[in-house]
Design brief:
The chain is an alpha/beta fold. 46% of the residues lie in helices and 9% in strands.
Length: 585
Amino acid sequence: MSVRSVVIHGHFYQPPREDPWLNEVAAEPPAAPYHDWNQRIEQECYRAVVAARLYAPDGRITQIVNTLASISFNFGPTLLEWLERQTPSTYAAVLDADRQSRERHGGHGNAIAMPYHHAILPLSSRRDKVTEVRWGIADFRRRFGRDPEGMWLPETAVDAETLDVLAAEGIRFTILAPHQVEHAPPGGLPGCYRTPGGRSIALFVYDGPISHDVAFGPLLKDAAAWAERLLAQAKGKSEPRLVAVATDGETYGHHHRFGEVALAWLLREFERRSGVRVENFAAFLARHPPRHDVALVAPTSWSCAHGVERWRADCGCRMAPERPTQQRWRAPLRAALDWLAGELHPRFEREGTELFTDPWAARDAYGAVVSSDEAAIARFVAAQMRRPDDAARRARARELLDLERNALRMFTSCGWFFDDIAGLESVQILRYAARAIELAGADAPRLEAGVLGRLARAEANEPGAGTGRDVYLSRVKRRVPAEAASRPDSGGPGGDAARELLRAVTLLEHDRSPRAIAVVAELAERVQRDGSPVPFDAQTAFYRIRAASPPDWAAQLAPVAWRLGFAHGDGAAKGEGEDGEGGDH
């Protein structure tokens, strides 16, 4: 029997939300009861996909699995920066998933890279394309300890120059939607694209209908049906066949509650079946290099039927088509920031030539440390300078690099994706623009006047918000007070008993006394008596501790395992051989 391959890819990303002056995320009331959207989505999705539950028919947990160890994935570097700082256990699980997959697939890891900021690269200059790609590669290398083989393009937005830049930087493949290539190779095989620069890169094309039904249709409510759809697509050809699915990673748990449970069930189901291999693109490419040349349809993306117009025009694509809104504001917003970038980059070059050995090389190399601590950044700046012993020049050199960082991140695609220039995402990219203007020094008043004049032509949809100029003056220039940007101690919903239970469970790793077990049992009973479910994080921590325990200690933990919602209170917590149900997750 020939073995067919399935690759499931998750693109995990949230826009950067940090205030560029405070480097803190301000409270976002629409994300309530959480402090902000990053915190809310981490709770609903990211911690869930790295600790997904498999259930017995009676609803008790048989196993907790890191689904990222089995699926292809990328995380936006700015999201990883937030996870590293705010949720280190989730962050560590992401890195560990790639390590596990490398062991499983002959050194080919599940993680692929992404340009550092979620910019629409076909709308960027080549120089900005190169910097974004180099920053993304450097950040990936720092975190995952290896060079990336593939790179996800934001919104899969592509043109010939973008692919030439990827190939020039050593990227072997990317992933596109079916409508972005002409005559995709049969059997899910990768195609070879020859760039205008004489380079080549492999293009994988995901299955459009199945991906749509995972993201927007019924398949996460019926994992058995999802499995059959994938297997049906994988049958019938004698050549090596690959079925690839690609969606936002937030599909699993945020957009679809318990979507990670359906994913975990699907992965276990395929582990049990012969004739199907769940793997990643890099491992498949190593066995099946591209044999068919393909032509590109460009510029295109996966979420705009009009190419890349969603990020510069009133093309009709929007989040809520049922509402009578207009997106005419997109063009003047793009014009304002394009103009600003055109003013900032020459200033960086003029001043930077006096300070750096090579200002553009310094900008490109900055990606290796941009998310590091202040000491690492200080060492980097000094190493790039002509006269590193001059403290005033060092300070200005750092400001110039920060100017360029903000000039890049003000093009984060989310600023145009949604339906109003008065929305959170558009206001955020205007904050980056304002910070870049401030760092320009004496030229700042002229630059701000130029931006305001162009934003005055951008009419908001929100009643009373006025124009983009008004939004800038009222919501960007009036900075968020530091105290409003501080993170509450609670970390989101959950009572004192839930937090006490998590602490008590964590102590079991070192305290093997009967009293420690009794405390966990008492707190679990108290939480449930209050009408609350056993906390997700407490279950996850308990499973990890018990799975790593010697048999005698694991046996002593059996009674409390039952209290915490696990099956087989008198056996192992790993749940081998358990049969959960595939439907209605």
